[in-house]
Target: 3-hydroxyisobutyryl-CoA hydrolase, mitochondrial
Amino acid sequence: MDKTSNVWQSETIGRGQSKVERNNTQHKYRNLRIRRCNFDDDDDVLFEEKNNVGIITLNRPKALNALNLSMVKKLYPKLIHWQNVDRKDLVIIQGAGGKSFCAGGDVVTITRNGPAKGAEIGRTFFHHEYSLDHLIGHYKVPYVALLDGYTMGGGVGISVHGKYRVATEKTTFAMPETTIGLFPDVGGSFFLPRLSHKSLGLYLALTSYQLKGKDVAKCGIATHYIPSQSLPDIVSKLIETPKCVEDILKSNSESLESYKFSLSSNIDTIANAFSAPTVEQIVSRLEQKNDEFSNKTLTTLKKMSPISMKITQKQLKLGAGKSLTECLQMDYRLACSAVEAKSSADFYEGVRALLIDKDKSPKWNPPTLEQVTSYMVDQCFELGPNQDLQFNH
Model:
């Protein structure tokens, strides 16, 4: 959990040093947001075209390539153009800096001024972000994401739904949203229940556990595993013969058939505990197991937002039977409920504690699982005003 926190904090520091924020601290936040929406950072995403291959580089290395509205608003129309007008043979997306593919989304901008302003900002950001995720999930051009470094939250959304996802020894995957009072969004309700091991997705979602390197491919989040030092050569081959993407990735990937998943010794405990019908019963089963892994997991769960955990458990259960489109629409309703503080303001409190004040002592409300009622959870799933997300690509 500490490593995840440090990544989120690094992302915040990068945003905190932006020129817009330094020069406009005396202005109202609305003016700051408008300037950002007008694409202040011209080079936060770089686009290249070679041999009918589109190459995207997320270019905020000091912020670990964290995804903001400016980037999303550049990515979406370019991908549409490459698909429908230029008709590219292949699209490759990567992160600049050598440390991170994309470490998450810009949650600080949404939350820093509370629900009164955060609701509108959040609805706008998540609408654009989830529309981008949906486009990638239904993209007609072969799409290769190079997950060479941190791949978390929003970074997962712009990669995991694409056809090809390449992990390396530098890959660190996590969905850390329950740490900040949110839920595994960006289609997490779609891909997490479909991982290779029973209940692994819910375990990852509730604990924010980090998977690294070969584990990311072994459980199905990545489709291929290739050493980081080989990526420049792989990219060159893909550009040279883009229509051979399948053969190039397959012939250069390491076989993981004999690789032992790092959680394999605890996978039965995960399957038993996290298949329980309620979060309280998950806790109870871990307490009954009472071994080192279970006790460590319990310690982690006690740090998470109680209402976030209950929302997440229901979200993934429903998502197992939904399409990606339906999952993203459900995620949008949940995201709107979070930014509107419909049942709880834990999203604002979690971001404050981990990323703004950095005291790492969130005051969750409700503070316990027992105090989170079914009504509080259920109303977050209901369709409210301005919460209907439709896709038009």
Remarks:
- The two ends are 37 Å apart (CA to CA).
- The longest strand covers residues 45-50.
